[in-house]
Automatic annotation (TrEMBL):
<dbReference type="Pfam" id="PF02954">
    <property type="entry name" value="HTH_8"/>
</dbReference>
<dbReference type="InterPro" id="IPR003593">
    <property type="entry name" value="AAA+_ATPase"/>
</dbReference>
<dbReference type="InterPro" id="IPR002078">
    <property type="entry name" value="Sigma_54_int"/>
</dbReference>
<dbReference type="Pfam" id="PF00072">
    <property type="entry name" value="Response_reg"/>
</dbReference>
<dbReference type="GO" id="GO:0005524">
    <property type="term" value="F:ATP binding"/>
</dbReference>
<dbReference type="GO" id="GO:0043565">
    <property type="term" value="F:sequence-specific DNA binding"/>
</dbReference>
<keyword id="KW-0597">Phosphoprotein</keyword>
<dbReference type="InterPro" id="IPR027417">
    <property type="entry name" value="P-loop_NTPase"/>
</dbReference>
<dbReference type="InterPro" id="IPR001789">
    <property type="entry name" value="Sig_transdc_resp-reg_receiver"/>
</dbReference>
<keyword id="KW-0804">Transcription</keyword>
<feature type="domain" description="Response regulatory">
    <location>
        <begin position="4"/>
        <end position="118"/>
    </location>
</feature>
<dbReference type="InterPro" id="IPR009057">
    <property type="entry name" value="Homeodomain-like_sf"/>
</dbReference>
<dbReference type="Pfam" id="PF00158">
    <property type="entry name" value="Sigma54_activat"/>
</dbReference>
<dbReference type="GO" id="GO:0000160">
    <property type="term" value="P:phosphorelay signal transduction system"/>
</dbReference>
<dbReference type="InterPro" id="IPR058031">
    <property type="entry name" value="AAA_lid_NorR"/>
</dbReference>
<dbReference type="InterPro" id="IPR002197">
    <property type="entry name" value="HTH_Fis"/>
</dbReference>
<feature type="modified residue" description="4-aspartylphosphate">
    <location>
        <position position="53"/>
    </location>
</feature>
Amino acid sequence: MKRKILIVEDNVGLSQIQKDWLSRAGYDAVTAMSEPIARSLIRKTQFDLILSDVRLPEGDGISLLEWLRKEKKDIPFIITTEFVSVPDVVRTIKLGARDYLPKPVHREHLLELAEDVFHPVATVRKQERQLFRRISPMILKVEKFARLVAPSDMSVMILGANGTGKESVAQTIHDNSERYGKPFVAVNCGALPRELAASLFFGHEKGAFTGADTAKTGYFDLAKGGTLFLDEIGTMPHEIQSMLLRVLQENVYTPIGSGRERISDVRVISATNENMEQAIKEGRFREDLYHRLNEFEIRQPSLEECPEDIIPLAEFFRERFSKELKRTTQGFTEETKQRMLAYRWPGNVRELRNRVKRAVLVSESPMLDVDGLEITVCVCRNEETDTLAILPLKGEAFEKESIIRALKACNGHREQAAGMLNINPATLYRKMKKYGLK
């Protein structure tokens, strides 16, 4: 379901531009010219975000935010203003506004703020998430380990680059454990504000500190009986690491402002793209916490290491976004498939997802083409691994190395390697014979 965004702006031209930007990004945007109209829409529709100008013909953005708080409507709110007033900004932030945007509003900044709003510090799932079944040998090995460790209560650490799908591995462990059916709470440790970390993890009682008007449930309570997934654990501030270590050691925690300890009943799974040995050596991560979290380690491979998954994943995302964006598509052109197989995918599955979504949106044909994906395959060296990218064969200088790399990536599967190199299997066989690669 699309996220609904309300734009409260009396400049019709500007509100239409912002609506178009958000619509093209996959959001459902609605406009209102005044505070009364905005209130009427908010009463009828459940919005996920409100973007409001301060100055309006009737009412203003600040009074709209005050009304929302009185009505106890906890909708993320971003204020926009042409004349930035420090007192106004401070007032809106105190009222709970997520951020403010000075005019003129730039598309990139607006979409970035929307992304931040819709990717919160923590998400709670009580129902099974539908995961795409991948087929590459390396992923099947990961799934084997995930299912093997799932029935135990061992703490698992998942290592892998950004965008590889580490949360999917954590979800697989949860779904195959005795905690299945209980909450799965995912926390982005990189987004945890230090000053609120204790309250977010353990909750607080009403009146525990200034602004604590009501009691709040923490992540350990939300995940009770289930799984607490700590993503980007390597970025967690040192003081939060100490708090977490105590809970893992003693199995108890105390909400802020409470005198009663609570028993921790969660299974902890963590994930990171950090080099943890280096982080420990540099004093950025506690070694004792690392060993508590890493009773069992799983490494999630990059998409480049799993070429068998590229086209099936692309088709999965194409079908999904065709439905979401109401676009009719049938597949990818042969040239597009070859280009996808030849590309390195530095952003992994997340990048593939985003590029396919874009291609579905901009395509003027049912068959998605290379232009829509906006990927290029070039001769380049990876500074970390010092290896050549897999390239369409051009010139004998690169042929042998590219063939070796393609065969290795495809575990010796000649047809897949040929597709990756944009040649037919018979041609690949002749070139393998030429270079003695049988």
